[in-house]
Amino acid sequence: MLLPKMRMVPLTLGQEIETPAQKLERVYFLQSGIASMMASLPRGRDLEVGLFGRDGMSGSALLQYDDRSAYRTVVQMNGSAFRIDASDLLDAVRAKESIRILLTRFARALSIQVGSTAIANGHSKLEDRLARWVLLAHDRVDGDSMSFTHEHLARMLGVRRSGVTVALHILEGKGLIRSRRSEIIVLDREGLMVLADGAYGLAEEESVRLTGWSLR
């Protein structure tokens, strides 16, 4: 019911697929790449409140009887997605209960992740938050290498670039990652989970329970 209405499209770094307070016209089901939900902070800064990749979709507000997003959703890693008009998606949701249940479960899993991000932002040290973010991204890519600059990570975490540089050095010093210019290589995933100190794990277990989407 959905596939005939879908079109595979490329996703490029920086592409905005949701704009706050604007009507949702299209929904993207990511097949590769990563998209981040960004909240605006004072003085023009942004902070990531959630992310998704091939485990999720944009437009989750539609499943909660809202046609607008509260956040700006931006592609953070090149990839591809199935794109569908919001009206066609809603027609399918109304017509087939199994589609509605599945997509609502994905939306629920994302909302739990957003809550976990809020807790981490408020109570975890920067290096712990960075370890969690690396794990979240690692879950959604193939291989252990990811292309992210220090500036990019600082924007996601809502901190200064210098703070991210120090945090990356801490993770490298523990042998958890290798950080090169515009690249992070995961060396010790279990060690990253330990450093994340509980900020990673609960939301991911709930995602598996709700959707059946398996992590690494």
How would you characterize the overall build of this protein?
The protein is of the alpha+beta class and 216 residues long. It has 2 domains: 3-121, Jelly Rolls; 125-198, Winged helix-like DNA-binding domain superfamily/Winged helix DNA-binding domain (Arc Repressor Mutant, subunit A, Orthogonal Bundle), CATH 1.10.10.10. Helices cover 42% and strands 25% of the residues. The protein has helices spanning 86-95, 97-123, 126-139, 150-157, 161-173, 189-196, 202-211, and strands spanning 7-11, 16-18, 26-40, 46-52, 72-85, 145-146, 177-180, 183-186. Strands 1, 2, 3, 4 and 5 form a 5-stranded antiparallel sheet that branches. A 3-stranded antiparallel sheet has the order 6-8-7. A hairpin with a 2-residue loop joins β7 (177-180) and β8. α1 crosses α2 (97-123), α3 (126-139) crosses α5 (161-173) and α4 (150-157) packs across α5 (161-173). It is globular and about 55 Å long. The mean pLDDT is 94.
Strand portion: 25-35%
Helix amount: 40-55%
The parts where pLDDT drops under 50 for at least 5 residues are none
Main CATH class of the largest domain: Mainly Beta
Q: At the third CATH level, what is the topology name of the largest domain?
A: Jelly Rolls
What's the average pLDDT? 94
Secondary structure: number of strands: 8
The ordered string of helix (H) and strand (E) elements is EEEEEHHHEHHEEHH
CATH superfamily of the largest domain: Jelly Rolls
The CATH architecture term of the largest domain is Sandwich
Please, how many domains?
A: 2
Span between termini? 30 Å
Shape: globular
Radius of gyration: 17 Å
Structural class: alpha+beta
Largest sheet: 5 strands, antiparallel
Counting H and I runs of at least 4 residues, what is the number of helices?
Answer: 7
